[in-house]
Amino acid sequence: MRTSDSHPFRLTGQAHSADYFRFVERDETDWQAWTAVLRGEVAGAIFRGVLTPDVRDRVRRNFWSSPLLRSRAQSSRDADHWFGDHLFTAPSLDWYLDKADRVRTALEALCAGPGRTPLSLLDEYRDHLADRGVLLRLAEHGGRRAAPFRLRSRADDDALVLSPHDDAEAIRHARHLDGCEVQRVARLCNALMCVENGSGGELLYWNIAPDRESRAALGMSTDSYGYPIESLTGIEQLTVPVRAGDVYIFDTANVHAVAPCDGGTPRTTVNLLMGRLDEDTTVYWS
């Protein structure tokens, strides 16, 4: 939607202070910084080179050789490959939980093995929280557990790999998730572990959590996806380079996107969502 060609419609909503709207950057995992994101003290945190080349190579080989790998080609240059399912885009909660039960062991095996793996990093954070009296567990519904994560690979050197979007409001209001505890988390965060990436593929992150008035003005419902790039004109934006081996987490209430990938190398990540149910419990899911 445009008010005119020279004055595009601009999203409105919550903007944050400079103290919050930033990414903490470390050369090693810092679980206190990770927790600060979950607690709403800072927008994001990124830890460089956590996954070593041997771990990345093993996970990458497991991913690309898996018989459970699925794909969808958009064009000759743009293809989407994944293993595992996203709760938000699932056709129903029961469908997702059925799939989670079937693939959970295979997903964990794909990311296990020697070294600091995506699976062992979750165990590290579980131990970190346990020392502080906090339980980290898979999200549940009706006594059934979610999948721990999903893997996804995208390659597109011509356009944004992921369009500008936010996740928190959509998940909180998704009808098929009514009654699921993931809708009650205090702050919904994306956590990603980068297995492979060439140049490009940066995280683009804007200082705006859109309000419902903005979404309505664009004709978007709670499950609509993708804001027009011109609707973000003039809004403060961070560009966060993401390299193979990096691990990062950020608040999904703010609009974010992924820049085009360059050089022909796909951007492959282990993806999960995480949030605090209360002071004593943090949950995660795919």
Written description of the protein model:
The chain has 286 residues and is of the alpha+beta class. The protein has one domain (13-285): Sandwich (Jelly Rolls). 22% of the residues lie in helices and 29% in strands. It contains 6 helices and 20 strands. It has helices at 31-38, 53-65, 93-110, 118-130, 168-172, 212-217, and strands at residues 13-14, 23-26, 44-47, 70-73, 79-83, 135-138, 140-141, 144-145, 150-155, 162-165, 189-196, 199-200, 203-206, 209-210, 237-240, 247-251, 256-258, 261-262, 267-278, 281-285. The strands form 5 sheets. Strands 2, 3, 4, 5, 6, 9, 11, 16, 19 and 20 form a 10-stranded mixed sheet that branches. A hairpin with a 5-residue loop joins strand 4 (70-73) and strand 5. The chain is globular and about 50 Å long.
From the structure above, extract its key features.
286 residues, alpha+beta, Jelly Rolls, 10-stranded mixed beta sheet, 4-stranded antiparallel beta sheet, 6 helices, globular, disordered N terminus
Low-confidence blocks of residues: 1-6
Radius of gyration: 18 Å
**How much of the polypeptide forms β-strand, as a percent range?**
25-35%
What would you give as the CATH superfamily?
Answer: q2cbj1_9rhob like domain
